[in-house]
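hiii, so i know i said id send this last week but things got crazy w the move. better late than never?? heres the sequnce for the chain we talked about at the cafe, plus the structure i predicted for it. fair warning i was half asleep when i ran it
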Amino acid sequence: MLSTQRLAAIAAAIVVSGVSSSAAAQTQDFTVDCTKGQTITAALQLGDSRKPTVLNVKGTCNEAVTITRDDVTILGVAGASVKAPSASQATLTIRAPRVYVDGLSIIGGAFGINVLHALDVVIDKVVIQGARESGVNLIAGHARILNSTIQNNGAHGITLLQATALANNNQILSNGSSGVYLGGKSAIQAANNTISSNGASGVSINAGSYGLLQDNTISANGANAALMRFGIFVNQSSAEILGGSISSHAGLGVAASLSSVQITATAITGNGGGVQGYLASIFTIGGAMITSNAGDGVWLDTNSTAQVASSTITNNGDHGIKLLFGSKLKMTPPATVVGGNSGYGLWCGDAESSVFGTNLMNFSPPNTAGGVAPGCTGF
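okay and structure toks below
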């Protein structure tokens, strides 16, 4: 698994290096008027390929576009769009560095935007919809995805495979599978996005990947009952969840397996369950509000551990905190409110599970079954 520091450094590098070169000296400007039968594909052959190129696109371009030259900017003018002629090719494929796409609608295709082994790609103020597979598919590259709407695509909204991305201020809605999917040691820094009503989990982080998720609104994902229905799923990976809200999922708000997850100042409410760690997962929870979930507030299972401080774990439909199969809980100051839950404030299902710091639990209002269940023991 890549280290958090290394992945964060990669994400920071994207921010610094991802400046479009369209502002460089000797930029070539061309207009592509698709209402007159012109095409982006033909325009990409114009001029000196060694110089930065800006294409100002008008109308609807019915073509599958592949960019293989460096330093290309494509600007949509007055509602311009690119529509794939079939679902067998990506609508826009990017195979070169320093490509900037701004203000277009990308419609249909196998993928909306397919970024392959390309660095410093910027997707800004773009609407991507109706692809057969993912809206944005990023493989072994680096991209910034900003201020865009990615919706109604057949698979994930955004897919990263061995890739890194910065995703800020986007609407990722009603895609067939996850809103955001990471695999193959990928990394994402995502802030101020709305990720809602997707078919599977809102964010799925897998296979040695890392997610830094800050101030996102993640709600009502898992529309397809045959798929995972979590707000955030972390599998053999790591994540930092800072601020924002995770609500209204049929499954858990946050689920982790063989993973490390930090949750800070985040509201996890109205889900099928609050937070679950499975198979030696590690949680650090501070300043979180885990309330009004249908199941347990925090569930640690199979040698999982959590350190909890200054949080509110209240009014959940079962226990406030549940420990099973050798799991461990450490409460640290400031105290955490664990009250008003329908079961115990703290319940332990076996003698191998243990807890430290029950004096840092405030069981007010009272839990239906009581504060600490009789089976809970110290370390």
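btw The CA atoms of residues 147 and 170 lie 5 Å apart. thought thatd interest u
miss u guys!!
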